[in-house]
Recover the amino acids of this structure.
């Protein structure tokens, strides 16, 4: 973290919503897209009452409609099949260009930003940090730093970053009651940020059941829409804990995986629709089949194929010497399989050499 970035962070923490318009091109273009809400469809013959019904269901953008199946739209209160067809026709007219050239897509990808982990070595491993518009998962044994990394990201996402990234707010979904605001204060102190402002920029919510966890993500959609690009990060620590409690035994596994898939699909859409980084933590379990395949590490993340496919980037954490930890890329679309060592310090995640 450079001096300049640190200094800037101290004064910028308060008003991210205002920053959106003055931001660099790619970021502001994306913000415009977010505010290009469903109301535009009124120009294509959809009546205002129907638009209100979409919004009541948490669908605020044209992309949001495209992300719903016809069946799902028909299930919404007050929307008949005929109305849904009319809405879908209007969407097709309002955003007709479904195919883009790779170059056009690369322009859209310019809005993607990376949130620093607090450790330059770990950032390097991840190609800059935790990426927006996708889900990053870390898994590992207890005390390996998953919750500490979650806390650190809530602070570092408020800092200015590369390519004109203005910094922004975070939402922390806590399923294990391990969120500690005092830790955020300590981490904010390390980055010379105003502690109160840093805490004000993190919205905390405790989830009690897997169903509640899903509802929270629905509510988060409303918050993201209303904030007009102010939020940059959603943390779910940990993603599987409640699913594990609510569904037990082999008999309930299929049901659990189906609900998990719905939850993750919702998160994935949110990350793309609102250009936020989604960071989830996961636990591990002994792999009973590992003995047969001579695997060096017989433990694996839980959640099965559903979670494996939903996470764009998967990182495994393990303990190193003292307070150091070793992160390894387990699965990534664009980063090679390699390792980085970092440390857990009073000021959050940092480089091992600084510990
Ligand atoms: P679990 O699976 O139990 O949730 P976890 O991976 O989330 O574990 P963390 O809580 O992130 O684990 O990490 C715990 C580690 O963080 C401990 O080793 C602890 O020593 C270290 N730690 C916690 N607070 C501080 C602090 N203020 N300063 C330095 N290290 C700390
Ligand atoms: Mg934890």
């Amino acid at each position: 973290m450079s001096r300049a970035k640190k200094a800037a962070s101290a004064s910028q923490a308060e008003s991210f919503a205002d920053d959106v318009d003055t931001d660099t091109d790619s970021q502001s273009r994306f913000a415009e897209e977010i505010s290009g809400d469903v109301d535009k469809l009124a120009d294509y013959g959809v009546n205002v009452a129907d638009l209100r019904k979409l919004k009541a269901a948490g669908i605020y953008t044209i992309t949001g409609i495209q992300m719903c199946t016809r069946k799902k739209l028909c299930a919404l209160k007050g929307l008949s099949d005929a109305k849904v067809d009319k809405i879908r026709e209007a969407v097709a007219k309002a955003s007709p260009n479904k195919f883009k050239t790779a170059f056009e897509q690369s322009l859209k990808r310019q809005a993607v930003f990376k949130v620093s982990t607090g450790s330059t070595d770990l950032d390097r491993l991840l190609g800059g940090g935790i990426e927006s518009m996708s889900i990053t998962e870390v898994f590992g044994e207890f005390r390996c730093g998953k919750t500490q990394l979650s806390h650190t990201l809530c602070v570092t996402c408020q800092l200015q970053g590369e390519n004109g990234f203005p910094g922004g707010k975070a939402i922390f979904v806590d399923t294990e009651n391990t969120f500690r605001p005092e830790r955020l204060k300590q981490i904010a102190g390390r980055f010379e940020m105003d502690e109160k402002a840093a805490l004000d920029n993190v919205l905390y919510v405790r989830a009690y059941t897997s169903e509640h966890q899903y509802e929270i993500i629905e509510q988060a959609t409303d918050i993201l829409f209303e904030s007009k690009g102010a939020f940059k990060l959603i943390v779910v620590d940990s993603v599987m804990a409640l699913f594990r409690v609510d569904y037990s035994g082999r008999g309930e596994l299929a049901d659990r995986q189906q609900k998990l898939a719905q939850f993750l699909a919702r998160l994935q859409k949110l990350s793309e629709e609102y250009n936020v980084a989604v960071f989830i933590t996961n636990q591990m379990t002994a792999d009973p089949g590992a003995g047969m395949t001579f695997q060096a590490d017989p433990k694996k993340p839980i959640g099965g194929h559903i979670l494996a496919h939903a996470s764009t980037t998967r990182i495994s954490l393990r303990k190193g010497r003292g307070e150091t930890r070793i992160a390894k890329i387990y699965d990534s679309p664009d980063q090679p399989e390699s390792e980085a060592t970092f440390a857990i310090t009073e000021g959050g995640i940092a480089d091992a050499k600084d510990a």
